[in-house]
Each structure stands twice: as C-alpha cells, then as structure tokens.
Design goal:
823 residues, alpha+beta, seven-stranded mixed sheet, four-stranded parallel sheet, 33 strands, 35% helix, 18% strand, globular, RNA-binding
RNA sequence: GCGGGUAUGGCGGAAUUGGCAGACGCGCCAGACUUAGGAUCUGGUGGAGAGAUCCGUGCAGGUUCAACUCCUGUUACCCGCACCA
C-alpha cells in the first residue's frame, strides 16, 4: 500500500471520471437532490482556499447524501461576464473573452482536483452565446409584460467604473466593487420592476428554510411599511400634495409641508419671489454626492417655495418648503412635517423658526416637553380626535380622510426597481432596437442572441463601448424595416446570475431556455450554499425573476431556493479578509501537493466551524501555521497503519462478544449516530472528531490478547471508512481497495446505527449534593427510580456533605444524575 | 440611530438544547524508542493550592434542586441598513 498523497488523489480522480460514477441519472429524478453552491467568477488566479472551503465542504455534504440514496444533481458553472475581465483587459490589452476563457479552463482543471462529484455535462458559462441568448430572451419576456422598462431617473454613477449601479450595489455611498464614491446623475436607463413583487417577496420569505438573519435583512431591504396617503390641497393652484405617513395620528400637528427638491410640484408652486432661491437649492442638491447626503450630522437645510397648501382637517394655510432630507424616491417624495413628533421635522423647524405644536401626549406624562415625543400616546389639541390612542387615531383619521376623499390607507416599500443597464462592454447586450418610427422594438426571438461583438474599443469613457461599434449599432427595424439603432448598453451581471440555476438541468437545450416539464421536476434547488453578502442582491433578484417567470407560466414553483446555508469566511492569518493586496492569502495548492487534497479537506472541516469560518491558524510569530494540518496528516497516517493491520489480519469468524468487543461496538454505533446527525448540519468538526474517537478506540484494542475479534475489527473498520468517505473521498477509496474491495466505496450505503448496541448494562450516575458532584455510582441501566433513589441515598450517607443535614428533595434525571438537596 | 449576531482553556473549537463545562485536535509538559528528532509511541494538561478543597463560559443581577444554555441590565467586537416620513 502506498502512502496517501496527491498521486492517489489523481489516480482516483482519473478512474472516477472514466467510470462516470458521479454522473447524474435523469431517470432517477424522483430521488433528486439539487445541491448548489453560488457559482464563481473565473479569475486568472489559482483557486484560493475560499473555493476549497465552499466547494470542498459542500461536496462532503453532497457525497453523504449520495450514500443515503439521493440522486445528486450537483452542477458547476461560471459567472463569466463582468467588470474584472474588462478592467484586466484595459490594463493588459488581453481581450476579456480570451482571458475569461483561459481562466475558465484553469479553474475547471483545479475544480476537478478538489475531487468533487460535479457532473460537468451540466456546466454553463454566462458569457457563452448559448447562455446569454436566453438571458436576453428573459429580458424580452419581462419587457413584453412591462416588467422591464426604460425611464429617466436620478441614478447612481460610479466615476471609476464609468457605469450606473443598482441601488443594491451601492454600499455606504460607494461602489460595491471598487469602493469609489458614487455620484447622482439623471439618466435614461433600463429597470426591472422588482417593486411589482415587493409584497410577495416579503410575504413568502416566511416559508423559506433560510437563515433568519438573511430573511430579516431582505425584509428590511424591501422595507414594507403600512401607513396612509394624505392629500393637502394646493392653495392658488389646481391639485394636491400627496404625502405618505405612518403617523396619521399626528396629522393635527402638521405645520408645514416639505417636498424633495426633485419633486415635480416644485415648479408649479414656487412663487416668482422665491424662484431664485429654490433653483439655487435644487442645483446644490443635484451636485451633492451620495456621501454628502449621507452625512446626517449636518444641519437640516431647505428653502421656502412661496407656495402653500391647505390642511385637510383644519384648512389652515401651511407653507411648502423643499429640503434634501426628504427623499424623492421614497413614499410620495414629500412629507407632512410634524415637528412636535418627528425628530427630523423638529430639527428643521427649530432652524427655520416654524411652530412646534404638540398633539400627542405620553400615556405616563413625565417626558421633557422641549423635545419631540416620537412614541405613540394619546391625542391632544386634535379637535374631534382628542383622547384617542395613537393606534385608534391612525385608523379613525384615515377613515375620516377617506370619506372626504383626501386620503386612504396604503402600503409603501423601500425597495426600488432594479437598474439593469450598464455602460460597459463585457456583458449581455440589451436586446432592444431603437427605431425612429416605431420606438423601442424588441429583437425578434429567432434573431437572438444579439451577439456581443469581439472587436470593440472598450476603454470606459462614460459612454457604452458598444455605441462606438458601427457594425453593432446599425441595424434595421424588425417592424418597419427602416434603419435603426441597437441599444448600446449591456445587462448587469446580476441578471445573468438571476436565472442560471434554471438553466443547469437543461443546459444543452437549443430550442428554449428550458423544458418546463423537466425543470419543474428538477427545481427548486433543494440546498443552496453561499455567502451572506448576497442577501439583498443575487438572492433577491433570483427570487424576483423566478416569480415573474412563474406568472408568465414558465415555472410552477414560487421560490428558487427552498433551503439556504451560509458558510463562514476563512480569513488570513492576520484576521483580515484574504486579498492579494494585503498579501495574506493562503494558497491550497502547496498543501495539496504536500499532504493530498483529503488532508486539506479534513483540516478545513475540522479546524473551523463551517458557519463561522475564522482566521487561519498562526504560530507564535504570527505566521500561518501548518500544525493543524500536520495533526490531520497524523490522523490519516494512523488510519493507514491501522487498515494495513486489518488487511493483513487472519479472516476467521469469531462468535464471542467480550465486554471489550461490546465497548468497541458501542463506540462504532455512537459514531454512526453522531455523524449521521452532524454531517447534514455542516458540522464537519464534530463529525471528524467522531472518526478520530473511533480510530482511537480501535487502536486501543489489545491485539496481543488471546483471540482478537478480527471479524468485528474488520467490520468496524469498514464502517469507519464508509463514514470517512464523504470527507476524504480519495483516501477512503484507496483504503477500501486495500481491503480487497473491487467496487467503489462511494457506492456503499451509508451505515445505520444499531440502537441496541448503544444500550449499556450499567450507567454511571453522578451523585450531586446541592448541585455539586460529590460522588458517582454505577447502576444497572434498567434501574427504576426507586432503586436509583435508594442507591444514591446509600452513597450519599457516607459523604461529609450530608452529615447532620436534613434531606429536602431528591431529583433524579434518568441515565444521568441524582441531585440530593440538603439543608 | 435602527436591525441581527458573537463572546467558553495558551489556540481552533465541543457540550445530546436546563442536567457531570472544556469532546476532538493543536500547542505545551513528562517519559519510551533513538547517534539524533521538527519522526513515532505512552501518559499528563482550565486556573489557584502541598492538600482536602475553592474558583471558573465577557461583566452585574435574577429565576431554578440545577444555568455556557432561560430572564433583566451592561460592555466589547463583527455584519447589514442608515434623514425611509
């Protein structure tokens, strides 16, 4: 037997590939388990430890389920459009297509070296024409149902990436990718109407087996908020200012109106006298960066418009202001200001000397009257509504307004429509033709894909690179046949990734994006694994696309990912995220070369908690330490030596079951039980610990003794290898073969524990006096409470802690302990 | 500011969900075999104490026969959102 190492990895990888052992069998689709990890971006660098962490560990999970009898569908692909390849091209001159294809080839090879059970027949790549053809097709389906539309709006512009960004891609006012501060620009862009599904996206979250925090994050991002529309008629003009508020109960405290500077009514109501100030303020606001607007420590600014609106209840004349603390994109873009009961309105009113009446009073009245009271309370100074609680008042006031046709209940969302167009090259072109006659014309389906031309000048200058390609831009209108222009923008890469899981099971289909009958059998994804950073981006977009396609009749399920798990992140030895610029990356290749891929797998599984991740271990000097990996290598070594002993053992049958045999068998079944429980929960560390315990027990078995029970030892050792198989597929296969098996261990059934073997004759009870363990007593496992009580008491009598004390109480916890309370 | 999470030996991490804290491994200590050991094997290893014992799960309280686990308050760090009316 040769020692385990990378040579053995390669040997078995080759054999598995040749035999096609892990191929998905569509005939078994009724037993399918669709296990998916978020696919990755093909980067030129080698696979990093994070890939192993994500793909290697989930492979252990999938392999175990395979042994449990599931037909595993475990595809792999590449999210291959996007900015990094384009930026790399700008720097080096290597075309994004060329660098991406090269990277994919490298990654494919390295991914195979993990020894995962991917079925490469189902591979896909989003930059592939046969893929983005259908990305464009989905765009057109949305377009035809008004779920994709074009509008001019203030959008987030990244000056470094030279493109617009979706709301979700702006973090702390900066670009999610390059961390450059974004600026606002008014541009005509393509949007997907995610808001059309805001209600369902919130509601069905509850049905999902997802981490709670992720559901909460998404819920907050969607930001459902119940409240009222309240109309304030304009004075001296036609129409009303419609406001959204969650606090209709404070209506009688509204003393002025604030419009967002971008609000369309500003033009109408601004009087000549105030026009210059208003214009100036609007310009200042427009020029502000996101960061400026984020700095909410600054004073509340704003200007009076000279216009007035009438209070819908009191008919008082209220001044209308504009201020940038009111956001154009939320609610109606205007607020009824209640400075007595809203912190922001209060600050504003103080600065601009506006009245601050009080209309809500605390139920327990001992609050400082100089500050706004923002809690619910009882209504005062509110005429007919006086005395109502805030809760009642919200309903009653809104009902009153409804009767007067000045308001209604409503629900508002924080979520905004998804901006999907990008002014960059390396993405799927928007499949729309701009015709001077016919307007926006969808590219006919039979003309898809709209191919991304290879030869394009893609240095970013704020304009879409495709606009500079005459051969791409010039086309004819499919309706009228006249000369027309293509859309020069490409789609956000999140559009590509919002449906890839739908394509995997039918990835070779050239007639349609998928066969609905087939896809409805294969989906939803049973278990999705990826980082939590996608909570409000990819995971939200994928849900939206799924629901939209369902409503078009292409899918029959409501949610793409039934169950979701977030793995933690492996950090560098310095505790920071690994990055090339920090120089703290850990490369798996060296470890694989030295120890073999299974040692790396086992180490990653054993040394960290999968859901938490954590920093790479360090030595005293703070450098990355190999000690933990060597510990695993030691375990592997011990296992190999043990299996060598077993394989050379005389094979005679043994009938006797000595107490020693029984104990060993106990450990075996305990291990089976624990690993069967822990492995599906991604608790690799405790699972591997159980394997170590089992091996330790085997090695303790006295082989020098008379009549070692070889058949039992062999049987337990084979179970040990079966339990190890998902975690160390190459090693276990090699050792399995060394025991004389011709078929793969990966076709073995997962062991089932025998509850009988876990029944012990005697159980050691802890005897506690007042909650502290003072003694122990060995009792038959079937002893009834009375026996336990008697034995424990007999034992306790001899203890000094009970001398001269009265026994007050005896608590018996079956099979565990007895607690005697004395005083 | 709002929402969520985490806190356990020198280190990574366990603890059947209220029942003997520290499984398993690393490191460390001692011993064995060795010319040698950064190999292997055996034993030990939460802290204090010579000892019986006492103290120990961020901190302070509480509930309970019994608390890492439940409750109240608090601190530190991490993540997400951030003038959302």
């Amino acid at each position: 037997m040769s020692r385990y190492g990378v040579a053995i990895d390669r040997k078995w990888q080759k054999r598995w590939e040749e035999s096609g052992i892990y191929r998905f069998n569509p005939e078994n689709a009724d037993k399918k388990l669709y296990c998916l990890e978020m696919f990755s971006y093909p980067s030129a660098a080698n696979l990093h430890i994070g890939h192993w962490w994500n793909f290697g560990m989930t492979d252990c999970w999938a392999r175990m389920h395979r042994m449990l009898g599931y037909e595993i569908f475990r595809p792999m692909g590449f999210d291959s459009f996007g900015l990094p390849a384009e930026n790399y091209a700008i720097k080096t001159g290597v075309h994004p297509r060329d660098s991406t294809l090269a990277s994919i080839a490298t990654m494919q090879r390295q991914l195979r070296e993990i020894g995962a059970i991917y079925d490469w027949d189902y591979e896909l790549s989003t930059c592939d024409e046969e893929y983005y053809r259908w990305t464009q097709w989905i765009f057109l389906q949305l377009f035809q149902r008004d779920l994709a539309y074009r509008k001019e709006a203030p959008v987030n512009w990244c000056p470094s990436c030279q493109t617009v960004l979706a709301n979700e891609q702006v973090h702390d006012g900066a670009c999610e990718r390059c961390h450059t501060l974004v600026v606002r620009r008014d541009l005509t862009q393509w949007f997907f109407k995610t808001t059309a599904y805001a209600e369902e996206l919130t509601k069905t979250l509850d049905t999902l087996d997802w981490p709670e925090k992720t559901k909460i994050m998404q819920k907050n991002w969607i930001g459902r908020s119940e409240g009222s529309f309240i109309d304030f008629p304009l004075i001296g003009h036609q129409g009303v200012i419609r406001n959204f508020t969650t606090r209709a109960d404070t209506l009688l405290g509204a003393t002025y109106i604030v419009l967002a500077p971008e609000h369309p009514l500003v033009e109408i109501i601004t009087s000549a006298e105030y026009l210059p100030a208003v214009k100036a303020y609007q310009e200042t606001t427009a020029a502000q960066s996101e960061l400026d607007r984020l700095t909410n420590t600054k004073e509340k600014t704003g200007v009076f418009t000279g216009g007035y609106a009438s209070h819908p209840v009191t008919h008082q004349k209220l001044p209308v202001w504009i201020a940038d603390y009111v956001l154009a994109s939320y609610g109606t873009g205007s607020v009824m200001a209640v400075p007595g009961h809203d912190t922001r309105d209060y600050e504003f009113a103080q600065i601009h000397n506006l009245p601050i009446p009080r209309v809500i009073t605390p139920v327990s009245p001992d609050i400082d009257g100089s500050l706004p009271f923002v809690e619910d309370g009882l209504l005062v100074n509110s005429g007919q509504f006086d005395g109502l609680s805030s809760l009642e008042a919200r309903t009653k006031i809104t009902a009153f307004l409804r009767a007067e046709e000045k308001g209604e209940e409503t629900v508002t969302y924080r979520l905004r429509d998804w901006l999907v167009s990008r002014q960059r090259y390396w993405g799927a072109p928007v499949p729309i033709i701009h015709c001077p006659q016919c307007g926006l014309v969808p590219v006919p389906e039979d003309q898809l894909p709209v191919k991304l031309p290879y030869d394009v000048q893609f240095t970013p200058d704020g304009k879409s690179p495709l606009a500079k390609s005459d051969s791409f831009m010039h086309t004819t209108c499919p309706i009228c046949g006249q000369a027309a222009q293509r859309d020069p923008d490409t789609l956000d890469t999140f559009v590509d990734s919002s449906w890839y899981f739908l394509r995997y099971p039918d990835n070779h289909n050239t007639l349609q994006a998928w066969d609905p009958a087939w896809i409805n059998r294969m989906l939803p994804v049973d278990r999705y694994v990826g980082g939590p950073e996608h909570a409000c981006m990819h995971l939200l977009y994928a849900r939206f696309i799924t629901k939209a396609l369902r409503d078009m009749g292409y899918l029959q399920f409501d949610e793409p990912f039934t169950s979701l798990f977030h793995q933690g992140i492996i950090l560098g030895a310095d505790g920071a995220r690994m990055s090339k610029s920090r120089g703290n990356t850990i490369a798996p290749d060296g470890y694989v070369e030295t120890y073999g891929s299974d040692v790396l797998r086992l180490f990653l599984g054993f040394g960290f908690s999968y859901s938490d991740g954590g920093p790479w271990p360090v030595d005293e000097k703070g450098n990355p330490s190999d000690d933990g990996i060597r510990g695993i290598a030691r375990f592997v070594d011990r296992l190999e030596r043990w299996i060598e002993i077993i394989s050379a053992a005389p094979g005679q049958e043994q009938q006797s079951a000595s107490p020693l045999d029984k104990e060993l068998n106990f450990v075996r079944h305990q291990a089976i039980k624990a690993i069967t429980r822990d492995l599906p929960l991604y608790q690799f560390n405790t699972s591997i610990a159980q394997l170590m315990i089992l091996l330790n027990a085997l090695q303790k078995y006295d082989l020098e003794a008379t009549d070692p029970n070889w058949s039992l030892l062999l049987s337990i050792s084979e179970d040990l290898l079966r339990l190890l198989a998902p975690l160390a597929p190459h090693l276990s296969e090699e050792l399995w073969a060394s025991l004389g098996h011709n078929s793969s261990i990966h076709n073995e059934k997962w062991p089932v524990h025998d509850e009988q073997a876990l029944v012990r004759d005697e159980i050691e009870y802890a005897v506690q006096i007042n909650g502290k363990v003072r003694s122990r007593v060995l009792l038959p496992s079937d002893a009834n409470e009375e026996v336990i009580r008697q034995e424990a008491l007999a034992m306790a009598e001899s203890l000094p802690e009970t001398k001269g004390k009265t026994i007050l109480k005896i608590i018996i916890v079956p099979k565990r302990l007895v607690n005697i309370v004395v005083a």
